[in-house]
Amino acid sequence: MNLTKLASSLLVTGTLSLAASGAHAFTVAGVTWDENSLFDFAAQANQFGTVALNAGDQLQGYGQFTALNANSGFCAGCELTYVFSGYTLNATIPASTNAPFFLNGGSVQVYVDTTPDFNAVNPAPAADGLLWLDLVGADPQGLGYTLLGSTTIFNSRGIGGFGAGYMDVVGGLAQDFLDTNGQPGGSDFLFTTSFQALRKAIVQNGVAYSHFGTSEISGVSAVPEAETYAMLLAGLGLVGYAARRRALDRAA
């Protein structure tokens, strides 16, 4: 990380704020949403990824969030991106339409970056910035998979289809706002995805990202518990103190 990006990262860390009494908008490192919205926390994203066809194949990919609670201006001066990996296909997908498929495992890392540089044909910038949310695939109902789906197209160019699953929050700047166990079985997020083959695969570092589509995640947000609230406020105070001290040192 270069010095400019490091400085921006320190700045965005210091802008994490909590809902004031009587207010309902949360802002975490520049990302703002209203927990009293009809949508609470519902985000839409584009998606670029590999394809899994045979048992043991793993999915990986990346994308950028384009709207939060139907608002495209949720991250003023910043961007929210993500990468995913580790979703492993249980069994080979039959070469037909309407074929079900099941995957296990999986993780998603969401990043906030104050120097927007997402590039649809390059996965690297999608992992830039600060870890905003860390998610893992969940099987809250004990069904033996973390993602299920079905094909809608299966031909020589690739497959099209859709999928759905649950995720648990395990880390990130927004963890204390979104680790709420608000989905079935104590999971935190429901996600859905639809995909189809690209005309030409995006090849980076030997990986062929051959499919694209959209994804959606939804969950419940909440004000952090009192102890966490106090720790976050204390952290903000330390960041502010450090910034003032550096300014005084430069002026001396």
3D architecture notes:
- 17% of the residues lie in helices and 45% in strands.
- The strands form two sheets. Strands 3, 4, 5, 6, 7, 8, 9, 10 and 11 form a nine-stranded antiparallel beta sheet that branches. It has a two-stranded antiparallel sheet with strand order 1-2.
- A hairpin with an 8-residue loop joins strand 3 and strand 4.
- It is globular.
- The N terminus and C terminus are likely disordered.
Note the main sheet. Answer: 9 strands, antiparallel
The topology string of helices and strands comes to HEEEEEEEEEHEEH
Kindly report how far apart the N and C termini lie. 28 Å
Radius of gyration: 20 Å
Instruction: Kindly state the number of beta strands.
Output: 11
* Residue share in helix: 10-25%
Helix and strand composition category? alpha+beta
- Structural shape: globular
Residue fraction in strands: over 45%
Which descriptors would you attach to this protein?
nine-stranded antiparallel sheet; disordered C terminus; 252 residues; two-stranded antiparallel sheet; 11 strands
Short description:
This protein has 252 residues and is of the alpha+beta class. Helix content is 17%, strand content 45%.
